[in-house]
Amino acid sequence: MTIYNLGSVNADLVYRVPHLPGPGETLGAASLTHGLGGKGANMSVAAARAAARVVHIGAVGADGAWMVERLLEYGVDTRNIATVSETSGHAIIAVDDAGENLILIHGGANRAVPEAALDAALADAGPGDTFLTQNETNAQVAAARRAKARGCRIAYAAAPFDAAAVTEMLPFIDLLVLNAVEAEQLVAATGKDLGSLGVDDVVVTRGGEGARWIDARGGEVTDVPALPVSAVDTTGAGDTFTGYLVAGLDRGMPMRQALNLASRAAALMVTRSGTADVIPDLKEIEESRLG
Q: What is annotated as the active site (predicted)?
């Protein structure tokens, strides 16, 4: 089967700092790295490294050819990434000595994905395939509507959180992934608990406490514990989790098995510095001593 991911493609500028800066603070960085990122690209790379077939749908500017080439190197089908007049998206990321991060994002080309290209991108999609998206591009609802009409499972990572965007997507979603803070915001915005949103499966990531799966069909809640690791950099860990989770389900794994795989991938990811370029592959996870 195939995962069609409408997602952002960013250049990540990562600064190592002794602590995250406060308001008005000027802080010197110990180092700077430049790499591939964006929630969409991260998830596409993670799913591809989890042995899924991934078609990325998105946009870059003329300055973003290197990012498309890198995605292709990582096993992602890039034929549906458009080149537009806007500059490519980028993120400025500060990572402190405890592995926590602060991120500033410029959407750029990610907010200019041509809607006219969606039908061509999803032309071969059908039952058994998965459509995945996040909140860093335009056209999520338009693409989800097209994918749903073709019989795809719709997976949605509700980040960066926007209550209006999530509410508009709810009628299409089969799998919703969000973190604990986003979950609280969604409950407050909708007045509904997570099991009453009309979404079959809701997964809440909770950092060091692991993840919680809410099976709305069966009315069951399952907690998946986190694996104990020493975090170096939490950037991209949630995206790695989501990419591996969706890939596991695409490969026919039961939800609990896919969650276990995603947890191991995210745990290994936080022991590394970087984003898409350092997402682990299946072999690395299998050879690790985690879990």
A: 239
Assess if residue 221 is contained within a domain. Answer: yes
Task: For residue 212, give the CATH number of its domain.
Answer: 3.40.1190.20
pLDDT above 70 for 28: yes
Q: How many domains does the chain have?
A: 1
Range of the structural domain that residue 138 is part of: 2-9+39-83+112-281
Q: How far apart are CA 262 and CA 237, in angstroms?
A: 10
3-state secondary structure of 91: strand
Annotated binding site for ATP: 179, 205-210, 238-239
239 is catalytic: yes
- Most distant CA atoms of the chain, gap in Å: 52
Question: Are 265 and 50 in contact, with CB atoms under 8 Å apart?
Answer: yes
Residue 254 inside a domain? The answer is: yes
What pLDDT is attached to residue 291?
58
Instruction: Please give the annotated binding residues, written as ranges.
Output: 10-12, 38-42, 136, 179, 205-210, 233, 235, 238-239, 269, 272, 274
Is 266 among the domain residues? Answer: yes
Whole-angstrom CA distances from 126 to 4, 73, 142, 168, 219 are: 11, 26, 16, 23, 28
Mean pLDDT for 16-31 is 93
How many CA atoms lie less than 13 Å away from 4 in the CB half-sphere? 28
